[in-house]
Amino acid sequence: MSADSLALAEGLREFYLKAHRLLDQAMKREGISFARLKLLLFIHRSGSVRATDIADFFGHAPRTVTEAVDGLEREGLVARVPDPNDRRAKNIRITEAGNAIILQAEPVRDYWMKRVFSALEPAEYALMLDIFDRLRAHMEMIASDLPEPEDVAGCSPGFLGDPARR
């Protein structure tokens, strides 16, 4: 990775982490963490969703999702309901209490996002959206063609090829 690419990746990572921490602090004042709000919003937007779909979307282990959903269910924010297509499976849906949390927290989240991005001029905002769209599309393209560790110049197959080190 070139020094410029590395600096850009590090800058993006640092921005994301700082923005996430800021939002988490603001959300905690509303009684919910930002992570839990994101989970509630995903379930709300999906209507009814399986835990495997949540795990796939967020890139979490199924056990992690189960624990998070268990906590939301204990608080009455989500409910497990039978899957109409698979009698062995359960879907997760938002409850009225979960909807109330979203209605309470979304304006706070929107307020802070507007404050964070108020540093940008409208043209810069539009440019960033375009850049992120292009990067997302490019990542989808290259993700379908990932090389084997031994095919990457300067990569030691013994290091990346070892599943214990991934």
Automatic annotation (TrEMBL):
Keywords: DNA-binding, Transcription, Transcription regulation. Residues 5-137 form the HTH marR-type domain. It comes from the Bacteria. PROSITE patterns: HTH_MARR_1, HTH_MARR_2. SMART domains: HTH_MARR. PANTHER family: TRANSCRIPTIONAL REGULATOR, MARR, TRANSCRIPTIONAL REPRESSOR OF EMRAB OPERON. This is MarR family transcriptional regulator.
